[in-house]
Specification:
four-stranded mixed beta sheet; 4 strands
């Protein structure tokens, strides 16, 4: 059922992305509508086939293998063991050169999946905690959350982009003399809010499910409980460098962005509620 819901969400989001381009293109007449259709189709194809590469590239992620040196090899073997527990194909494994401790998963299907962790998380977390984190990310892969997350991030990014160019769109509408100031105002004021709400809508419930399934994959909720508490504490003090806020919903904990209006719309449930839910699993 979870997989079906996420596939359905992905289809809805791709349709929303197309509709967004058609709406903007429609402000410029038939030619603009055609251009919107072309760009919408191209963006949907990019979201489907390349969103994982975009996410990994934006984090400057480096792929690691079984014969990589030190902690990278231990991480690879840990993921290999956990993915066997989850009955998943082996995902690609990446390390991101960032001090802020965090992790994420991406890819349009389990066969195309990738999991990534920052260097800060590798140094901060114990082996049991890291197992809990990677099991959580593999749960996202198994539930096919990763494609939904990437598409939602792309929509959020497109909405934010339209907001930045809202004044230009407002001044270049169908009425070339007076422009379309209403569209410009709506784009400027509502696009960032809409982007944040889309991310929050997609992410919150799925984090509880991934926590629950991840605890089962790891064999215990204890490592993930401790890891979430550590990650929450440290990530609030260490921001992610070169980070696109539209990608927030992909990470295991909300990345710190400094003071931003987007922080009003958290893409994750409160960590204390996630920990409380995991402790209930321990009591079962």
């Amino acid at each position: 059922m979870t997989v079906f819901k996420n596939n359905f969400k992905t289809v809805v989001l791709l349709g929303l992305l197309m509709g967004l381009f058609l709406f903007v293109g429609g402000q410029f007449g038939r030619t603009g509508l055609l251009i919107g259709l072309i760009f919408g189709a191209a963006t949907n194809l990019i979201a489907w086939f390349f969103s994982d590469k975009i996410a990994l590239s934006s984090m400057r992620a480096i792929e690691v293998h079984a014969d990589s040196p030190g902690a990278a090899a231990r991480l690879w073997h840990m993921v290999d063991e956990l993915r066997r527990n989850a009955d998943l194909p082996m995902p690609r494994v990446y390390v991101c050169p960032a001090e802020s401790p965090n992790a994420f998963a991406t890819g349009r299907s389990p066969k195309k999946a990738a999991v990534a962790v920052t260097e800060g998380a590798l140094r901060l977390l114990s082996e049991q905690e890291l197992r809990g984190v990677m099991a959580h990310e593999l749960a996202h892969v198994k539930n096919r959350d990763t494609l939904t997350s990437c598409v939602a991030a792309m929509i959020a990014g497109v909405l934010s982009y339209f907001a930045q160019w809202g004044l230009m769109f407002g001044g270049m509408g169908r009425d070339r003399e007076g422009g379309n100031p209403i569209f410009g105002l709506v784009a400027i004021l509502l696009a960032p809010i809409a982007a944040a709400l889309i991310k929050a809508m997609i992410s919150r419930s799925r984090e509880y499910v991934a926590d629950h399934h991840g605890a089962r994959i790891a064999g215990t909720p204890d490592g993930l409980i401790s890891a979430l508490q550590k990650l929450e504490s440290y990530s609030k003090r260490i921001p992610l460098p070169v980070h696109n806020p539209a990608m927030n919903n992909m990470f295991i904990v909300e990345p710190f962005l400094g003071r931003s209006i987007l922080n009003m719309f958290a893409s994750h449930p409160p960590t204390e509620k996630r920990v409380a839910a995991l402790r209930q699993i321990r009591a079962e």
